[in-house]
Amino acid sequence: MLRPLVTFALLPFLLPSSFAAEAPGAVGSVVRPFAVRQLEGGTVELPTHHKDAKALVVVFLSFDCPVAKSYLAPLGEIARAYADKGVVVVGVVADEGPASVKKQAAKFDVAFPLYADPELKAIRELGAKNVPEAFVLDAKGALCYRGRVDDRWISPGKSNPRIPVPDLRNALDEVLAGKPVTLSQTQAVGCPAPRGERRAAPGGVASKYTYHRDVLPILQARCQECHRPGEVGPFSLLTYKDALRWADLMVEYVATHQMPPWKPTAGPGYRNERTMPQREIDILTAWAEAGCPEGDAKDVPATKSFDGTDGWTLGKPDLVLEMTDDFHLAPSGPDHFRVMVLPTGLTEDKMITAYEVKPGNPRIVHHTINYFDTTGKARQLEQAEAKRPKEPGEPDRGPGYTSAMGIGFLSFPGTTGGLGGWTPGQRGFTLPAGTGYYLPKGADVVIQMHYHRNGRVEKDRTKIGLYFGKNPDSLKRLKLVVVPGLVAKGETLEPFRTIPAGNANYLVRGRSIVQEDCTIYSILPHMHMLGKSVRVTMTPPGGKPITLVNIEEWDYNWQESYFFQEPIEVKAGTQFDITAVFDNSAANPNNPFAPPRLVKKGEQTTDEMLFGFIRATSSGPGFMVKTQYVTEAGDY
Q1: What pLDDT is attached to residue 298?
Q2: Residues lower than pLDDT 50 in the chain
Q3: Handedness of CA 141, 145, 147, 149 (dihedral sign)
Q4: CA of 451: how far to CAs of 194, 271, 336, in Å?
């Protein structure tokens, strides 16, 4: 009886130290073989199955995670580039069976072997925390690197504007050269790796909240508009299984107010606010902490319907405009901004009282900004793009032209103008009663599309439905009040020209004073990549400042017009102020330059600007409310 005990006691000293004491996935440890399922049937062991490889890359993936899907094409490029060097790249999809993985993989062009890990053996052996997460094993099975493929993602919903650092390629080059990996561990950005089904609450604590009775109604009201199959949400939240799978990520994002996506933190109250009350956040948090109890099926609320009449929420439009052809979007790379030109063919002026944007492919359409153009310049840019010599196999192709900033050219009131926009979750949008967007005869509707890649080749043909006022003469045109940014320098305001490199809190202010009575309906603050925070206020003559919008964490990807719940009457002499902070330091992950550079005021994405655009009506002539732009040193 003593002999087995002695052998067992000595076992940790006879095996490699990684087997006995190292935590799962510790860099430098030797990885023990673990079983995974082949998609065509049968089980193999990794890394044994690829024992002749000079290096084996194991990447944990999920077809539910948008970040993981975005790496399918880049990983294929790595697999092809390093195949002749003896490197094998494999993907492991955890918590899914072979049949499910095979079905989902068929939608993508996956250029490396995939395995299924339904029992989570691979996850547990390597200790993967996120998907995607890459692990590099050398020829002896020692773990040399773990972490991200590269740093193209700052967070699951925010891409890095800089050229990505190829961490995985760098690690492979050093392993093949027989050198220690300089940066052997990095933080993988993505979705939480599956950990298996939840059990009852720790310690047997009962939850007073259940999925069917308490959680599902919240998801229906706040989440399912986007988080359902075929829509822009990266995963579905229609079923209990969906909510169980994404409970931790869901709680993290609502608790930090990253979801629902809504940036204002102060203001007079807006139409169509995408906010979640603290009580609902507390319910989701308590439910998740209690083990996500399903509850009684008799408490299930009625299924929510998202379909409108003939596919249009507001009924049949007066005019439907559609992209002339499919736009093809490559599976990977930075987000793409494309401007589509849609001729109206109108022979008379119209007043738009409502509109609805219908993305042809909601999986990739992040948002739109809508304009009209009477100059023909947008058509010229589209024609020039069509005639441009194309690179062989150029992946992003189709109608329109590329412009990351608006419609790509300077415009003047009356010849071009804004027609609102669309963000995920917004169905048809009706303008405030008695108002409308002016659409001149012969104008083109021009839509800037923000496309978000999802890991596979996609195509889109978006359309917009316009609803015209039946009595246009009775409607007031929505005009602009512009509050331009001026740089704060000393005690005076001077025209905003540059932002110094290295400055993390560069203050920019601007001021306008309206010269006529008007009524304001919405506010749109606008900055670029270095924006950190922005506030717009109005001060009536002899009164105190009133906040129209305050955004404490500016995000260029989530900017929109915020329409007030009730119109605000404004007297002549009212002062509008805009105050913003820019971060041009190396610590700003959104900074497009590393190291930081002097950034000038301009139209390009890597330039900067600051404006507050206010929609208003007034009795005066013209397309803009009469306004005086003011500095403390005088007018200009």
Answers
A1: 93
A2: 1-21, 199-204, 488-493, 632-636
A3: negative
A4: 28, 25, 5
Nearest to 533 by CA among 523, 544, 525: 525
For residues 210 and 296, the answer to whether their CB atoms sit within 8 Å is yes
| CA distances from residue 444 to 338, 370, 572 in whole angstroms, order as listed | 16, 11, 34
Eight-class DSSP state of 601: B
Q: How far is CA 318 from CA 200, 335, 350, in A?
A: 55, 32, 11
Buried b / exposed e over 604-630, threshold 16 CB at 10 Å, is eebbbbbbbbbbbbbeeeeeebbbebb
Enter the DSSP assignment of 37.
E
**DSSP 3-state of 141:** coil
Residue 566: Cβ within 10 Å count = 10
CA dihedral 200, 205, 211, 212 (to 10 degrees): 110
Q: Which amino acid is at 121?
A: K
Q: How far is C-alpha 438 from the geometric centre of its chain's CA atoms?
A: 31
Q: Give the predicted TM-score (pTM) of the model.
A: 0.81
Cβ–Cβ under 8 Å, residues 474 and 352:
no
Three-state DSSP state, 187? coil
The Cα angle at residue 626 between residues 629 and 511, in degrees rounded to 5 = 25
Closest CA to 63 of 457, 454, 459, 362: 454
Cβ neighbours of residue 527 closer than 8 Å, sequence gap 6 or more: 534, 554, 556, 580, 582, 608, 609, 610
CA 571/CA 352 separation, integer angstroms: 27
Q: What angle do CA 554, 559, 560 make, to 5 degrees?
A: 140
Residue 277 CB-density burial (10 A; 0-12 exposed, 13-18 middle, 19+ buried): exposed
- Residue 458: Cβ within 10 Å count: 20
Whether the link from the prior residue into 24 is cis, omega within 30° of 0, is: no
Q: Which residues contact 533 (CB under 8 A, 6 or more apart)?
A: 550, 551, 552, 553, 554, 580, 581
> What is the pLDDT, as a whole number, of residue 311?
75
Count of other CB atoms within 10 angstroms of residue 203: 5
